[in-house]
Amino acid sequence: MKLPFNLVCAALILAACSSSGKKIAQVSQLAPDWTQPTSTGGTLTLSSLRGKPVYLNFFATWCPPCKEETPYINTLQRQYASRGLQVVGIDELESATQAEGFRKQFHLVYPAVVDNGTLQAQYLINGLPVHVFIGRDGVIRKIVAGEMAHAEILSAVRSIL
Known about the structure:
Blueprint: H1 5-18, E1 35-37, E2 43-45, E3 54-59, H2 64-80, E4 86-92, H3 96-105, E5 112-115, H4 118-122, E6 130-134, E7 140-145, H5 150-160
Parallel strand pairs: 3-4, 4-5
Antiparallel strand pairs: 1-2, 3-6, 6-7
Helix pairs in contact: 2-5
């Protein structure tokens, strides 16, 4: 039996993707670990934050809803830092200079990492902003694509504290 060429190609592509070792982030699953460069020149690893409630905020400097949400997210980091909250801004596909400029513009008290596309692939990012809420145990509790109202962000943060 001869298989159609397009079926063979599709099977090869699926096999290559599934063997790449890239874990896709899913609610109720352990968040995939990563190490990314920060906007200040260091690196940050998600596993280094285990034991803390973590809020990943995917943004870009050109994104109007991201700019609108940022001051409130910064306020939450300040407000809940004593309870262990760690917000991490994840700048999508921009430079460290752009990410650090954004941090300075909004006086952010939390770090920003510069995603080279790895996190974009893990979290299936195809629009911004995206919000990911991770419990102290490293399990993803909620993923929200798109802008969130302040009350929704607050509720999600409180759910991981």
